[in-house]
Fold these 2 entries.
Entry 1:
Amino acid sequence: MTGRILDGKLVAAEVKKQVAEQAEQLGRHGTRPFLATVQVGDDPASTSYLKAKHRAAEEIGIESEHHHLSASTAQDKLEAILGQLNTNPKVHGILVQLPLPQGFDEDSIIERIIPYKDVDGLHPINAGRLAAGKEILVPCTPKGIVKLLTHYGVPVAGRHAVIINRTTLVGRPLANLFLNRDATVTVCHSKTANLAETTRTADILVSAVGREEFQISPEHIKPGATVADVGLTRVGGKLRGDVDFDKVSRLAGFITPVPGGVGPMTVACLLENTVQAALIQTRGG
Ligand code: NAP
C-alpha cells in the first residue's frame, strides 16, 4: 500500500483562484486588499518566505508592501511602525515575520497589531476566539492543514488527531480547529513520554518539530493513518520534513510531501486571511 499524496500545491492553487475572485469582487467595490509585512533582521529563511508571500499576493491581485528593519532596531520603533499600519486605512493585513531577533518581546509586538488586521491570527483576541469555537482570523499553517484534509475528504469528526507541537503558531490553533470539527485531540511535545505509543493511535498525525535529530518513522504510524508533515529542517544544505517519507508513505493512507505539502497551503491561507480582513474592514467590523 502506498499513501495517497495530499498535494498542497494543487489545493493551494485552487484556494488562490477563489481568493483572486474575491479580491476582484472587492476591487469592483473600490477596495484593493492590501498586505503589509514587516521583517526585522536578515534571517535568510524569513527573507525567502516573505518573497514567496509577496509574489503570491501580486499574482492574485493583492497589493503588498514590505518594511525591512535592521536587527538593531529598537522595540519602540517597531511598535511605532505597527501603530502607523494599524491606522492606515489602505492596509488590511499586517504580518510581522517571526521569529524576531533576540531581545524583542514577541508577545507584546503581536499584541500591538489591531486584531482585525492580524492576518497571522496570533493576537490573543483571535487565538481566544478560536479557542472559544469562533474562527475569524485563524493562523495560516493550521488553517491550511485543515483545508488540505477537507479537500481530500479525510474524515476528522470522531477521529483521533495527534499533533506533535504545542506552539501558538501551529499546535495550539490546530488542536482547536480539530476540536471544532469534533475530533478527539492529543497534543504532544518535547516532554511527552512514549511518543511512538501515542502517535500509533492517531488516525491523523501532524508533526511540526523541525529538528535534525527528530524523525517520524513507520514505528510511529498506525497503518492507514493520514500524515501531515509541517516540520522543516535543513540537513546538508537540503530541506527536509519531520517524516521519513519513503518508508512512512508505504503505511499511511494519505501523506503530505515536503516540499509541496503544507508550505503552499500556508501561503494560500495568508492570502485568504488578507482578503477576509479586507472584507471585515469594508463591512465595518
Ligand atoms: P518551535 O517553536 O521550534 O516548536 C517545535 C515544537 O516541537 C515544540 O512544541 C516542541 O516541544 C516540539 N518538539 C521539539 N522536540 C521534540 C521531540 N523530540 N519530540 C516531540 N516534540 C518535540 O517551532 P514552530 O515555530 O512551532 O514550527 C515547527 C516546525 O514547523 C519548524 O520546523 C518550522 O520551520 C515548521 N513550520 C513550517 C511551516 C510551513 O508552512 N511548512 C509553517 C510553520 C512552521 P516543546 O514545546 O516542549 O519545546
Entry 2:
Amino acid sequence: MTYPRKHLLAIEGLEPPHIADLLDLAESYALLNRSGKTQRDLLKGRTLINLFFEDSTRTRTSFELAGKRLGADVINMSVSTSSVNKGETLLDTASTLNAMHCDLLVVRHAQSGAPSLLSQKVDAAVINAGDGTHEHPTQALLDALTIRRHKGRLEGLIVAICGDIAHSRVARSNMHLLTTMGSRVRVVGPPTLIPAEAARLGVEVFHDMKAGLAGADVVMMLRLQRERMSGGMVPSAREFFRFYGLDAEKLAFAKPDSIVMHPGPMNRGVEIESAIADHPTRSVIGEQVEMGVACRMAVLDMLSRQLPRNR
Ligand code: ASP
C-alpha cells in the first residue's frame, strides 16, 4: 500500500497509485460494511476528534461512523460548543488538542488552508473535511469509488461537473482526482460560476448544458453555494434551473447508461429536478453516502498506520 503523507489535506499532488490504493482499500471496507461486520480492533485506543467550524450533517456523521466501525474513541467538537466562540485562536485550539493526545483530527473550516495550518501545529494526523472553496478530498474519493463501481474504471470516462464550480471545493478536489486518474473532465456552468483556473486544471469548459452533457458517462451536479457568493452572480433560482438545472430533457444528451451524482445537500428544483435525484436506475446519490463511510474508513486506516503507538 502506498500513501506517502502523514495528513490528507488535498487531492492535488497525490499520484495515481496513492489514489488507486485508497480506492481499493475503500472497496474492501464497502464490502465489509455490506456484510454487517466491523473491525473494531484496528483503531482501538486511538482518539479521533471531529472539529467542525462549519455546519455539516453528512460528512461529520460519516467520519463518526467510520471511526466507530474501526474501534476509535470519537469526539465531536462543533464551534458552538467550543471556546472558539469565546475568542480562542485556531492555534490555541491546536495546543488544546495536543494536550488531549488526539491521534486523528478531522477538520472542516470556512477558511481555505485552515486544516493545513493546524496540521503544522498538532501532533495528530489531520484530515481535511472541507476548507472554504479549496478542497474536500474525501468527497472526491467517495465520488471516484462510486463511479468505479458503476463503470469499472475512471480512465477515459467523460465526467461533466455542472453548476457552481467556482465556489465548490467538491469540484476542485474532483477535478484534481479525475484528471489524475485519466478521466476527461468537463465543467459546465454560467461564466460567472466557472473559476479562471479551470483551463490550467486540464478540464474543458462549457456554458451550455446540452453541449456539456453530450455523450457524458457521469453527470455530477453541484449546489449553488449562495453563502459564498458576493452579490448577484446568478439570476433567480427559477432561471438558473431553466438553463442549468438537470431534468430529463437535458439528461437525454448524456449517454443512456450515464449516472447522476450530487454531493448533497441538494436544492431540489434549483440544480436538479426531484424526479432525476430520485431516479431508480440513474441516480447514485444514496450510494455516494454509503461509499463515504467506506472511504473515510480507508483514510483513517491508511493514516493510522503511520502514527506512533502509545502516544
Ligand atoms: N457538502 C459539500 C461541501 O461541504 C457540498 C456542498 O456543501 O454543497 O462542500
